[in-house]
Write a structure and sequence with these properties.
mainly alpha, globular, Virul_fac_BrkB, transmembrane, membrane, transmembrane helix
């Protein structure tokens, strides 16, 4: 495994602890950027980190579902679940979507009367804690990408992971809710001002770009807060754009593959679970690849940082 900062330790040994700092930087072309990114993906063992993240995410998935369903029950919106699942089925492979739907609808039925009780609060807290573990795995992986140590206080690491879990979940769920109930709310407003048919046309055009922007913002939050480096917040970064595009293409290709193959013959009764694990694994890898691309770009722009540096001023003081 790549040790954070090992590049600078070796240079220090070779130069008597006087590490040369590059004074000029050269922006990479598209082909060179892609080559460098995938080279770094291999060197940083991101495939292994994606496996670790898949393990954490799979265990966090159903606690997260309990968390969301508890919130829906508390606010009296449980009837939204079937419609939210319909939107998720547009992205997930059919077998994985059916598996999730059956499990979540079963959980929803058993928790239909959820209220603000001590038990509900404890359940929500435990679920949120489980989900935050997946985000701590993302933080660990991106620290390796940037070759930095995790020296933030433990309380801060846990707090960031919990806030990331809350923030990303809120963004993704709100985007799905927007798709589900947005037409009704917007349609009522449009009818009131005499724009009924016009609104319907506009909504069909803009709803998916709005969803993409929300997903891009979720990626931006992860890439900004997860690694232990100082950086300028970017609403949209090259890494997040590439990650979202790759994720959409992968989701489409994976759905076509799964829906037109007989994985049941290979995995038997575990086919749905295996498909879900594969989907989470490659989705996790895509998230980490986007972070790697951002790091490579950071290393080659005038105002950027070298690998192993947490701030842009570290190299100047070497």
């Amino acid at each position: 495994m790549k040790i954070p900062g090992i590049h600078y330790l070796r240079k220090a040994e070779q130069t008597g602890n006087e590490v040369p700092v590059p004074m000029t930087r050269r922006r990479l072309g598209t082909v060179e950027l892609l080559k460098r990114t995938f080279k770094e993906v291999g060197e940083d063992h991101l495939a292994a980190f994606a496996g670790n993240l898949t393990y954490k995410a799979l265990f966090a998935l159903f606690p997260f579902a309990v968390f969301l369903l508890s919130l829906l029950g508390i606010f009296g919106s449980s009837e939204l679940l079937p419609r939210l699942l319909e939107q998720a089925e547009a992205v997930l492979p059919a077998a994985a979507a059916d598996f999730l739907s059956n499990q979540l609808l079963g959980i929803a039925e058993s928790n239909a009367e959820t209220r603000f009780t001590v038990g509900a609060i404890i359940s929500i807290s435990l679920a949120l804690w489980g989900v935050s573990g997946a985000f701590r795995s993302v933080m660990e992986a991106l620290n390796v990408v940037y070759e930095v140590d995790e020296d933030r206080p433990a309380w801060k690491v846990y707090l960031i992971s919990i806030l990331l879990a809350l923030g990303v979940a809120a963004l993704l769920i709100s985007s799905l809710v927007l798709v589900v109930v947005g037409p009704q709310i917007g349609g009522a407003i449009a009818e009131a001002v005499g724009l009924g048919s016009v609104f319907q046309t506009l909504w069909n055009i803009v709803r998916f770009p709005v969803l993409l922007l929300v997903v891009l913002f979720a990626f931006a939050l992860i890439y900004y807060f997860a690694p232990n480096v100082e950086q300028r917040f970017r609403w949209v970064s090259p890494g997040s754009i590439v990650a979202v595009v790759l994720w959409l293409l992968f989701s489409l290709a994976f759905s076509l593959y799964v829906n037109n193959s007989d994985l049941g013959a290979t995995y038997g009764s575990l086919a749905s679970v295996a498909i879900l694990m594969l989907y989470i694994y490659y989705s996790s890898l895509i998230v980490l690849v986007g972070g790697e691309m951002n790091q490579v770009i950071e290393e080659h722009i005038p105002e950027g940082k070298n690998e192993g540096e947490k701030t842009t001023n570290e190299g100047a003081t070497a």
